[in-house]
Design goal:
The protein has about 120 residues and is mostly beta strands. It has a domain at about 10-90: Nucleic acid-binding proteins (OB fold (Dihydrolipoamide Acetyltransferase, E2P), Beta Barrel). The protein has no helices and six strands. It has strands at about 15, 25-30, 35-40, 50, 70-75, 80-90. The model is unreliable at about 1-20 and about 95-110 (pLDDT under 50). Keywords: Cytoplasm. This is CSD domain-containing protein. Pfam families: CSD.
């Protein structure tokens, strides 16, 4: 008997992504915001992959739109394959969008030297 024969095979299994990038690519088939799930069509074909909002990696409200290109990992669960670590294709690893937080030049909306500091308060 080998060590592999004694391995626990009951847990989820991660499948390597195609193309060697560590992430698989696909398009969102549909996503129901109210229910928090939908399906992704893998770029390489194969069965649709279940996608749950808790696996979407983005700031703020986690959602996907039909037709969005995404990258993800595939995990085999008790009910079949599903996508995990889902994010927009081409999104930087740290979750920041390109150019986010970069200011080319100051563009003040209000000149503080000329702003009127008085505030009218109606005390009726």
């Amino acid at each position: 008997m080998s060590i592999a024969d004694n391995a626990d095979r009951s847990g989820p299994k991660l499948f390597p992504a195609w193309g060697g990038t560590g992430m698989a690519l696909g398009k969102v088939k549909w996503f129901n915001n109210a229910k928090g799930y939908g399906f992704i069509l893998p770029e390489n074909g194969g069965e649709d992959l279940f996608a749950h909002y808790s696996s979407v990696e983005m700031d703020g409200y986690k959602t996907l739109r039909a037709g969005d290109e995404v990258e993800f990992e595939i995990e085999e669960g008790p009910k079949g394959s599903h996508a995990i670590h889902i994010r927009s294709a081409g999104q930087p690893q740290d979750g920041a969008s390109e150019g986010e937080g970069i200011v080319d030049e100051a563009d003040p909306q209000v000149d503080l030297d000329e702003a009127d500091p008085q505030v009218d308060v109606d005390n009726d």
